[in-house]
Design brief:
Arc Repressor Mutant, subunit A; single chain; four-stranded antiparallel sheet; 48% helix; six-stranded antiparallel sheet; alpha+beta; 278 residues
């Protein structure tokens, strides 16, 4: 199914708020003793093969990842695995969960299980940083580990030969996507939580909870963000008056300067003048 640019943009917003937890991260050299049989994954597996080969049976398909490839096995899969005819192989690996709201990321986004790596130094360094941070004891160690995992996930998603958004059957995702598209179209109008909750067919309290879990913002915070972003774009790319810009983003003209300064720290006039100078 072809996805519209708006739907891809909305999913990008969900990705920005994906919640990850690292369960294990390390490096191992393995051989004939390594095997799993009909293991149902409760978490995602991310491998980076640095030497040798192995065999993985996943949901009826056979994979033979080799040195220089990334492997992503999503939570919910049933796998069996072994070395390749007893061959010794080395791999970095990370076990992690990733959620968008209450939905597993890779239930919503299907990607290729094997990714060819074109910058081996970069990926190995990132896994080394991931492992060091995961086992570290600094205040920022967990944050650093999750940041590095996010970089690796971006690489995997961006370099996957196939990317398919699967929101069918995920009512919360479909409902919030419909609301986000409605916000974009009706930004110049007055918008309320009750109106948006009705559009999503949710109780207002439940709607606020689901919306925040998927975007990181309350509905009204998200609308304010959209209005600010649209105002910045109009200030940079048009010569519209402040009153017309205010009207286009659904802000009362008398309140526009205060609104913009609250979000940017400068007045809209100063923002426009600074942009012209740069």
């Amino acid at each position: 199914m072809q996805r519209t640019q708006a739907q891809q943009r909305n999913f990008s917003n969900y990705l920005a708020n994906v919640q990850t937890a690292i369960l294990r991260s390390s490096f191992r050299t393995l051989g004939a003793e390594w095997s799993h049989s009909n293991l149902k994954l409760e978490y995602n597996l991310l491998y980076y093969m640095v030497s040798g080969r192995c065999k993985i049976w996943i949901d009826g398909s056979i994979l033979v990842p080799t040195a220089g490839q990334l492997v992503l096995l999503p939570a919910g899969s049933i796998i069996s695995a072994s070395s390749y005819d007893g061959e010794v192989f080395g791999k970095y690996y990370c076990h992690f969960t990733s959620l968008i709201g209450d939905n597993r990321l890779f239930d919503l986004l299907s990607i290729s299980p094997i990714i060819e790596v074109d910058d081996h130094v970069l990926i190995e360094e990132q896994f080394q940083h991931l492992n060091e941070s995961y086992t570290g004891h600094e205040m920022t160690s967990i944050l650093r580990a999750k940041t590095t995992l996010a970089q690796l996930l971006c690489y995997v998603i961006e370099n996957s030969p196939a990317r398919i958004i699967n929101d069918a059957g995920h009512r919360d995702v479909q409902s919030i996507t419909r609301v986000l598209e409605y916000m974009q179209l009706r930004l110049s109008h007055k918008l309320s939580v009750d109106e948006l909750a009705k559009l999503a067919h949710f109780h207002p309290r439940y709607f606020i909870s689901v919306f925040k879990s998927m975007t990181g913002f309350s509905p009204m915070q998200y609308i304010a963000k959209l209005r600010y972003d649209r105002a910045c774009s109009l200030l940079r790319t048009t010569n519209l008056s402040m009153n017309k810009i205010a009207d286009r983003i659904g802000i009362l003209p008398d309140y526009f300067t205060k609104f913009f300064k609250h979000h940017s720290g400068v007045s809209p006039t100063s923002y426009r003048e600074f942009d012209k100078r740069t």
